[in-house]
Each structure stands twice: as structure tokens, then as C-alpha cells.
Amino acid sequence: MALAVREPGRKLRPASRHLARQRATRVTWTKNGGRYSAALTPLVAPPCEDLMLAPSDTVAVLSIARQDFLSFDSSATCGDVVARFSDAAHKDDVNFACLKQSDGRFLGLVNLRDCLAEAATRPAREMMIDDVTPLTEDTTAEDAARKVLRTRVHCLPVLDKAGRIRGLLPDQAAYQFMFDMADEDAAKMAGIVGVAHDHDNYMNLTIWQDYRRRIPWIFGLAVAGLAAGLVVHAYESALDVLVILALYMPMIADTGGNVGTQSASLITRAISFGSITTLDAGRVLWRELRVALLVAATLFVFTYLKVYFLSNGAEIPMGLGLNDIGIAIGVAITVQVVSATLIGAVLPVVSVALRQDPAVVSGPALTTIVDLTGLLIYFSVTTRLLGIELAPA
Amino acid sequence: MALAVREPGRKLRPASRHLARQRATRVTWTKNGGRYSAALTPLVAPPCEDLMLAPSDTVAVLSIARQDFLSFDSSATCGDVVARFSDAAHKDDVNFACLKQSDGRFLGLVNLRDCLAEAATRPAREMMIDDVTPLTEDTTAEDAARKVLRTRVHCLPVLDKAGRIRGLLPDQAAYQFMFDMADEDAAKMAGIVGVAHDHDNYMNLTIWQDYRRRIPWIFGLAVAGLAAGLVVHAYESALDVLVILALYMPMIADTGGNVGTQSASLITRAISFGSITTLDAGRVLWRELRVALLVAATLFVFTYLKVYFLSNGAEIPMGLGLNDIGIAIGVAITVQVVSATLIGAVLPVVSVALRQDPAVVSGPALTTIVDLTGLLIYFSVTTRLLGIELAPA
């Protein structure tokens, strides 16, 4: 059943956008047992505006693989391969062809250049590249692109369940997909929605379109920011008693956002390069905990010294010393750094486990969460340690 | 004069890292009239750890271009071209060769596949691709990569001042460079330093190395965050008089960071895709101003309605009504949204004009700046509009 996938509000991937634009093909998405697959059909006019896009978690490798590849029977000679590549009508930029068995199953890859170097009568099968691990058609485009970029041969075949060749993924296409994805992730982390189409048209969007891609996160985060306001509001009497607390409040909140963004961004990168998986969650947390403790120790020392030596003229209530206050604020920032780092580390791992896009949580959502937890930590730690009584709000 | 470029603390680009790793070559940087150029020399062992890297603003196109390309005299035939490509010793994955004039100057590009399709005796010159605009060797790698990705032929030659061919830049290399750059920019925006080497080794860094790439921004921003604390501290008496101000304070600061990050990120993207330049600064500001006014209007309405209808039980001093307070806070958020959006738009343009990397200012630095300006705006606007007298701090 053919299905045009363009549901409003779904996250979209720029699947094969560039391919389609350059080579004037239309992508048709086919739903098959819960998965989408795509076919590229030649078109007369570039279908750039009309291109169908797939939800990000269902972009299959076939949507970025070439489907106009050459394939040969196992009996083909090097001369046969060169002759087909020489066909002026076949203007592809990929130098690889597939050899297939008599039942159509994949046998191996051959490189045009290898065949060119040999006598025309030599069986192409003897030139086959043997260390090729084919992709299956249910591989995601992202996994497939990573695998191609790690191979020595710069190209991998895509097979269906029966072992028949469905497409060929060259490294150009893999790089292009990864580049589009990195770019799209950067936009998501900045809280911009629906970036699939706006690659290079900053000036071309209408003001209204530009507004619509920015306002959802801005509005949502403004509402969420009221929660942080409630915390400040609830502890306003603590600020009355100890005015110096106001001085360190923005630093506590901001530092949480900064350390959380760092760890979320590093872990999102590591996940997207395949160097960690959700199974490594324990090791990731242990590593982040140790780094966070070093960062927290640095800021504890800085904060304590700042409070102790550079608080000239601050009003300190009876019974409290700068030593106590320095330690209390230092403990608060320590707890905030460790918790925000771990929240930043956990969110991308959890979002991958839940099949969500980690780039979204690594951005504005994270900052808002650790802002709130940071203010809660700050006021509860300092009022507890310094024995400040809160007036009823 | 040969010069190994690895000064501590300089921003590094992952120039030709992947190339060198895969093809076992060493990059040697040569300083020539204030510019760096690179030569790739074959090596026995992959020099991954030992690779020289260039400062980001001096990566020239030759560091990512192929230097082992084929070139032919203008008298070469299609058969000559095919024969050289067939040479088993020349295992490149680029299908293009250069034709040169008798004095060595560039004449045009030919495609192996075009020559294969023709009679061996036909002059290769007749198959030349004529709409090629060569790159010059003083082009930056970034500009060159963008130009290649826009061409129809997927490959561009790099010429020296005399018009001689120095290298060939295929689209694989261009995509790879752009992908590395997008990835590196994402890390910079998260405030992580020295990302050139840590592509896929999240688990391999020591805790101490990981600490060192995170602490510079965290520490610097914590110090800067104290300035925002001074603002809250200075206006503490306003919070005393009008407790409800505390409720909206984090929202004002956060919203500034959010809108600023959006506009900085969109403009950084537009600059890096070449769709705007520093000459467009006026048009960019005018566009951002209009989008910001729409966003600000939305938040003004939201804030006013929230204050007016959902402030049950808030202590309001004599002489002030919820209508006045709603308008005052709404005006403050309007000013904050517009100013933070414009600051976010100006910083990347200014940093490009000053030849700095826009990704750095689009990240943590921006958030800290608009946090500070936001609190100043918030307290000065509300105290002015509501006539709140400040107690001497």
C-alpha cells in the first residue's frame, strides 16, 4: 500500500532530499509490515517542494541508497562490466556493480577500475571484493551510513530478506545523510522545529513561517520557566534574611544548564557516532559522575573563596559567618553540578531507548529542567545548612 | 619554510584527518606568504595520532583536495585516459582527470565514464566538461567544499596563481569536511573545547582529559554569572516590595537565552551555507526584528493574561493593580525578546567579520550575555513603570 507520509507535527528527516533535487526523482514511501521503504522514480521536473518525507525513526536505508545500480550474473566477464559502465546512457557516479547468483541473490561487489585493469575475458567473479558485509533493508539510514563510512570499499549493498539486491549505498550518499543529520540536530538543539526543508533558505521564509518554527519551544519553555519562578517565589523570605543568596542564584542555575548541555551534547555525539549504546548506560554514568565531581570541586573552591574573601559589605545576619555561608553555597553548587551533569547524561540515553530523538532533549528542554532543579537544590541546601527559617509564603 | 602547526590553546580544524587516516598519508603544513598550504605524503603506518592540524581560519582547500589525481596533455585521446585509469597501481575512487595546456595550465576536466563510452582514438578534449569554475589555492576549505557541492559535476580542480593544477576536490571530500565541521560546531556551541580529535572516542579519553575540555567554559561562565547575581542583588528591595516579580524573573532570563540561541543558530547556519554574508547584516536585522516582534507579542499576551487572571493570593502593594503589573512585566518581556533576538543575530555576523568562529558565540557566551541584559531590562522596566522605589543596597 503506497502511503504519502506528511503528518503535521511529526518530526521529519531530510531523507534523500538532495538526491531527489539533483537527480530529478520522486520518492514514494511504501508501508510494508510496519516499516517504510522508498522507491525513486525519475521525474521531469525537480520535485523539491513536493518531496515526501518520512518520520525520523522510520527512514530506511533504501531511501538514501542508489537504486539505479548495475548488476551482473556470476558468469559476467570484466569486459561485460566495463561495457555496461561504458554505456553513455548510464551516467552514475558510483564505480561499483553487484554480482548476483542465478536465483538473484547477492554474490559480491566488483569495482569498475579493477575490471578495467584486467583482460576483458577474465571472469568478473575473480575480481570480487570479498570482505563486504551487506546491509539489510530494515537497517536505518543512520546505521547504514555509519557502516559505509567505516568500510574500506566506500560502498555497501542493501539486501532484502531473501538476499536479493535492493540498492547500493556509496559513501557520497552516506556522508550527505550524516551531514544533513548533524545540521538538523544543531537546529533541534537550538529549539527550532521542522528544519527539514529550510537548509539554505534563511532569507526565503516568510516572517510568519519563521515565527512558526520558533514559537513552539519559546512558548513552551516560557510556561515551564514559571515553575522556576515559583521556586524563587517560595524562597523569597530566605533572600530577605540572607541577601547575599541572590548574588549566587543566577550562577547556580546557569552552571547547571552549562554542565548539563555539555554532557548531553557529548553523549548524543557518542551515540550518533556509534561509540556508545544504551547498554553502556552504567559506564557512561560512572564516567560522567567522576568528571562532574572534578568540575564541582573546582567550582566549590572558587565559590568558597569568592564568598569568604570577596564579600565586603555584605549584610550577614547574627550568628552566621562567611565560612558557613561559603560552605553552604559551595555544597549547593556541588550538588547542582553533579545532578545536572547526570541529568544531561541520562536524558539522551533514555530518549534513544524510547526511540525519541536525543537532539531535542539535549537542547532547550534540558536547560529548563536543570534550571528548576538547580533553584530547588540551591535554596533547600542553603536554608537547611544555614538554619534559615522560611516565612510562610 | 615547513612549519608544524600545533600551538596549545588554538582552535583546531579536523583538516583532512579522515583522509589521512584512511589513506595512510602525512599532512605537512607549509607557510607561504602568511597562508598555510599542505602536502600529503604517503606513509607506512596510519599517522592518526601524529597528524598535524591547522588553525581553523587557515585551512586551505589543498588540505582537503586530492593531490594524486591524473592529468593529461591536451592531445590525449579517450583511449589514453582509460588506459591510465586502468592502471592497477592507481587505486583512486575519483573518476575525473584534468587536461592541461602545454605550459601546464588547466584546460578542463574529463570524466572517465565519458571517455569509456567513446572510441579510443577520439581526442579527450572533445569530451571536456566545459562549465567548470576552478577553485584557487587560496580558497578556504569551507568555501571550496560549498562550491563543489553546488556544481553539477561533483568535482572541481584547484589551481595556483599561474593557473597550474594543484589538486582535485571531489564531492566525497567536500561532504566529509562539511560533516566534520557541522559536528565540531555542535560541540563548540555546547561549550566544549578542542574537539578536533575526539570525534568518536567518548569512552577513550581519561577523566582528566574530559575535565579539561569542559572546565574552561564552565568556569568562565560561572564567573560571568556573578554579574547577573549582582543585578538581582541590586534590585532585591524591589522583590521585597513586589514579591510577584520573583515569579517571572527566571522566565525573563531563560526566554532571552532561548530566542537568542534560536536566532544565532539560524544565522550561523545561513552563514555557513553561504546564503547570507556580512554584507546582508541590515536585511538580517530587519528580518529578525519583525520575527522578534511577533514572538514578543505572543509572550506579552501570555504574560499579561497570566498575571491578570492567575495571580490568586499574590500580595499586591497599595496603589498597584494587576493590570499595571501585567503590562509592566509584559513590556519587560517584549524588550527582552527583541533585544536578545537582535543580540543573537548580531554576534555571529560580528564574529565572522572579525574572522572569529560564530559557533562559539552562538553557544554559552550568548546565553550568559542575554541573561544579564534580561535581568537588567526586567528590573529597570518594572520598577520604572510601576514607580517602585529602590532601597539603597
Automatic annotation (TrEMBL), chains A, B:
InterPro entries associated with the record? CBS_dom, CBS_dom_sf, SLC41_membr_dom, SLC41_membr_dom_sf
Q: Where in the cell is it found?
A: Membrane
Report the main location listed first in the record: membrane
| Keyword flag Cell membrane | no
One family name in Pfam for this protein: MgtE
User: In this protein, which residues make up the domain named CBS?
Assistant: 128-184
SUPFAM superfamilies, sorted: CBS-domain pair (SSF54631), MgtE membrane domain-like (SSF161093)
Q: Does the keyword Transcription apply?
A: no
Would you say which domain of life the source belongs to?
A: Bacteria
Q: Which UniProt keywords apply?
A: CBS domain, Magnesium, Membrane, Transmembrane, Transmembrane helix, Transport
* A GO MF term: monoatomic cation transmembrane transporter activity
Recorded GO CC terms:
membrane
Give the membrane topology: Multi-pass membrane protein
Residue spans crossing the bilayer = 215-235, 241-259, 291-310, 325-347, 359-381
List the PANTHER family.
MAGNESIUM TRANSPORTER MGTE, SLC41A_MGTE INTEGRAL MEMBRANE DOMAIN-CONTAINING PROTEIN
Report the sequence similarity comment from the record. Answer: Belongs to the SLC41A transporter family.
Name of the protein in question: Magnesium transporter
